[in-house]
Amino acid sequence: MSSVLIPFIATNIATFTSTITASITATNTTASITATNTTASITATNTTASITATNTTASITATNTTASITATNTTASITATNTTASITATNTTASITATNTTASITATNTTASITATNTTASITATNTTASITATNTTVSITATNTTATTTCTFT
C-alpha cells in the first residue's frame, strides 16, 4: 500500500496549492544568514507573509549564490523599528518575480545597508503594488560591477 501511496504523494505535491500565512516577529534579536555557493528558491502562492523586527540586527551575506523569489497573489509586509539590516552580495544573482502582489515596507529609526559586488539583481513586477514608508531611516547602497534590472507592468 505504501509503495503506491508514496509515489502518488510525491507526484502530486508539486502541483498542490494552498493558502499559507507566515508570520515572523523578532524583538531584541540578532539574526545572521550566510550563504556560500548556494541556490535558494522561495515560491509563494496565495500567501500572506509578515515580518516584524524591533530592536533587531539582521545580517545576510551571500557569496557565489543564486536567490530566486517568486510571489503570486501574495501579500508581503515588513515592519522594522530601531533595526539594522545589512545585506552583502558577492558574485550573486538575485531574482524577484511578483504577480498580483502587494509588498509593504515600513521602516522607523532604521539603518539599511546593501553592498553588491559582481552581482545581478532582477525584479519583475506585474499588477503589483509596492509601498515603502521610511521615517528617520538611513539607506546605503554600494554597487560594484553590478547590474540591476526592473520591469514593471500594470494592467
Feature tags:
155 residues, mainly beta, 5-stranded parallel β-sheet, 1 helix, globular, disordered N terminus
Radius of gyration, in angstroms, nearest whole number? 18 Å
Give me the side-by-side strand order of the main sheet.
1-4-7-10-13
- Tell me the structural class: mainly beta
Number of helices: 1
Question: What's the structural domain tally?
Answer: 1
Instruction: Please mark out the parts with pLDDT under 50 across 5 or more consecutive residues, or reply none.
Output: 1-17
Average of per-residue pLDDT values: 82
How far is it from the N-terminal to the C-terminal residue, by CA?
49 Å
Report on this model:
By secondary structure, the protein is mainly β. The protein has one domain (18-153). 7% of the residues lie in helices and 69% in strands. The strands form three sheets. The chain has a five-stranded parallel beta sheet with strand order 1-4-7-10-13, with no helix packed on it. Strands 2-5-8-11-14 form a five-stranded parallel beta sheet, with no helix packed on it. The longest helix has 11 residues, at 2-12. The chain starts with a helix and ends with a strand. The model is unreliable at 1-17 (pLDDT under 50).
